[in-house]
Design brief:
Number of strands: 5
Number of domains: 1
Largest sheet: 5 strands, antiparallel
Strand content: 25-35%
Distance between the termini: 11 Å
Helix content: under 10%
Structural class: mainly beta
Radius of gyration: 13 Å
Number of helices: 0
Order of helices and strands: EEEEE
Strand order of the largest sheet: 1-5-4-3-2
Shape: globular
């Protein structure tokens, strides 16, 4: 397994208001929201229904982060 350094700040965006109204920053498609850890309800995973981009949302800190693509 090889490691790769990626700068994530470039894909970070502030969240104001209702996170469920957010759209994909890549294609503006609708996002599907998931809460994988019930003990951390403020941490949400979002996946674009159109281009399949992945995002991590932190509702307490108020940011949305576009996760980097991983080549198989």
């Amino acid at each position: 397994m090889t490691s790769e350094e990626t700068r994530l700040e470039q894909g970070r965006r502030a969240i104001d208001g209702d996170y469920q109204a957010l759209r994909c920053t890549e294609c503006y498609g609708a996002l599907e929201f998931h809460q994988p850890d019930t003990e951390s309800p403020y941490r949400i995973l979002a996946i674009c229904e159109h281009c399949h981009s992945w995002y991590l949302l932190n509702l307490v800190a108020g940011w949305m982060l576009l996760l980097p693509e991983v080549e198989p």
